[in-house]
Amino acid sequence: MKFKENLNLRKVGDEYMMVSDSDAGLDYTRVISLNESAAYLVHEVIPAEFSPVDWVGLLMERYDVSHETAACDVQMLLEILTEAGVLEQ
């Protein structure tokens, strides 16, 4: 899977946001707020294809969490991003 084109990760203050970048500029009607861990995962894979396994490995390396915890967190994040319509399968 991968993220749809024209998505950008922005940091505003202490918050991370994904916004759509079109020819008309940034579309702030579709903003997705991300925590630091989610922003890290997104940043590591945009614009390449990735798998949930890739993200689990990244979380385990960076945060020293168990495979089970990382897999659960990745699954929840993927559900949120899929519902938001920002992923291509």
Keywords:
89 residues, 3-stranded antiparallel β-sheet, 5 strands, globular, single chain, two-stranded antiparallel sheet, 45% helix, alpha+beta
The stretches of 5 or more residues where confidence is low (pLDDT under 50) are none
Mean pLDDT over all positions: 89
Report on the biggest sheet: 3 strands, antiparallel
Give me the number of helical elements.
Answer: 3
Helix content: 40-55%
Distance between the termini: 4 Å
Order of helices and strands: EEEEHHHE
What percentage of amino acids are in beta strands? 25-35%
Structural class: alpha+beta
Rg for CA atoms: 13 Å
Anisotropy-based shape: globular
Total strands: 5
Strand order of the largest sheet: 2-3-4
What does this structure look like?
The strands form two sheets. The chain has a three-stranded antiparallel beta sheet. It has a two-stranded antiparallel sheet with strand order 1-5. The longest helix has 18 residues, at 67-84. It contains three helices and five strands, in the order E-E-E-E-H-H-H-E. The protein starts with a strand and ends with a strand. The radius of gyration is 13 Å and the shape is globular. 45% of the residues lie in helices and 31% in strands. The chain has 89 residues and is of the alpha+beta class. The mean pLDDT is 89.
Write the layout of secondary structure elements.
Layout: E1 2-3, E2 7-12, E3 15-22, E4 25-34, H1 36-45, H2 52-63, H3 67-84, E5 87-88
Antiparallel strand pairs: 1-5, 2-3, 3-4
Give a brief rundown of this model:
The protein is α+β, with helices and mostly antiparallel strands. The protein contains three helices and five strands.
